[in-house]
Amino acid sequence: MDSAGQDINLNSPNKGLLSDSMTDVPVDTAVAAQTPAAEGLTEAEEEELRAELAKVEEEIVTLRQVLAAKERHCAELKRKLGLSALEGLKQNLSRSWHDVQVSNAYKKTQETLSQAGQKTSAALSTVGSAISRKLGDMRNSATFKSFEDRVGTIKSKVVGGRENGNDNLPSPTGSGDKPLPDHTPF
């Protein structure tokens, strides 16, 4: 088949012209001729298969040429329309992301994660309340009160010496003019 005279792209202004890169696709019939015939085939069947193989290989070359011509035409149309490769990529990504979002797997995963988030939030809230309650109970315990009193005593001994130095720091025992501010840590 003479591929140089074929009309590849009927819409192309270069109808019938082929690119050199696509016409150089080798068809190696010599290798096929050197291989021994498959067992059980007659020479006529083998010859028929070789002819069919050559025809299919010719069709492949033609289809590659048609595809190359269509791709060139497509690129030319995109260039004339001002569409860039980046714009096409953006559209493909946008379309793919939309397809993912409407898929059942995505919806089920989103639902599951939402439920897990709600359960986790509720669990953390419960844990926070429990910790807060335990800290409040601990603050009101006798051990904590004893510890607080000891810290107050140590502080009064350390700060008490500064009061005589006229630093005007309030006394932790409350023996100054102003009452101590309530700095509750919890």
Automatic annotation (TrEMBL):
Residues 39-80 form a coiled coil. The keyword Coiled coil applies. Residues 1-14 have a biased composition (Polar residues). GO terms for cellular component: cytoplasm. Residues 1-22, 155-186 are annotated as: Disordered. It holds the Pfam family TPD52. Keywords: Coiled coil. It comes from the Eukaryota. Belongs to the TPD52 family. This is Tumor protein D54 isoform X5. It comes from Vulpes vulpes. The gene is TPD52L2.
